[in-house]
Amino acid sequence: YQAKGSRSGIARYDACRDTFDVGKLALVGELRRAIESGELELHYQPKAELRTGRLCAVEALVRWRHPRRGVLPPDAFLPAAEQTGLIDPLTRWVLAAALAQITVWAGAFDDLTMAVNVSARNLARPDFADAVLAALSDAGIAPGRLTLEITETALLADPEVAADVLARLSATGVRVSIDDFGQGQTSLGYLSRLPLHELKIDRSFVTDLADNPAHAAIVRSVVDLGHNLGLQVVAEGVESRETVELLTATGCDIAQGFLLARPMPPGDLADWVAAHRTDVLTADR
Ligand code: C2E
Ligand code: MG
Ligand code: MG
Ligand code: MG
């Protein structure tokens, strides 16, 4: 199976992945149904401003409530979805559900942005921009409230198409974030040509920040790089108070991680927000 002509670079991307086995094929058949039958759900993890402790965004993270296998994490089914093209309906479902959630929450969530993760194959499709804009207009949500999180790997599937798609979306106000920054192989020249708003430092550099001088140096440098490019810098994988203090000292803008909160179902998140809206970084939990 090949998504597009070899020019696209998709073939190169797929070659890095596992080949199919029978178990995976069964899973793919089930996933196709799962998308339609409501077995997918989104959990939401807060992002908070380091300077003020204020909640500023939530990231939607997909789970599959499988009838026999229990709740499956994204890593268990997203690679297969990418390989088969099921990622296109899956991402459409995620976008629609995350944007609908903004309206359900309303009120206390009015100044939050919603972050949605986007896969390589989504971004390699020129019509992806239309799909995102249709989802926003169907949900009646302003484009500026949506952040698309994109890994460097996802950009490399087809860098030209990805740049075009992001330029179109960014022109409407959609925000663009580079996820897991520092893990990939995108050139800084290419990144500097993209219409970016946010850099998320990969959690492998953040979690052990206090004990790893090399990672501390990388975090400081990425914060400077991001700020010099005019971007907001997010640290993911924040698990300790010490890390919060070090990040604050570097001038990092936003924190996300288990210290603040784990990803939660929407009802739990609403309760959590009511309790921690302005003191996300300081309250006892
Ligand atoms: P990501 O976008 O980098 O999301 C962050 C992942 O790190 C999440 O795992 C989250 O639960 C986890 N995490 C958050 N804080 C901490 C922390 O303090 N420590 C540690 N150790 N981990 C933390 P999750 O939900 O399993 O998602 C894994 C990846 O799957 C995501 O990484 C993202 O690349 C992908 N993904 C998740 N949902 C979607 C989706 O709806 N669409 C697409 N295309 N990809 C998704
Ligand atoms: Mg993400
Ligand atoms: Mg990440
Ligand atoms: Mg990740």
Automatic annotation (TrEMBL):
Highest taxon in the source lineage: Bacteria
Ranges where the EAL domain occurs: 24-277
Name listed for the protein in its UniProt record: Bifunctional diguanylate cyclase/phosphodiesterase
Lineage, top ranks: Bacteria, Bacillati, Actinomycetota, Actinomycetes, Micromonosporales
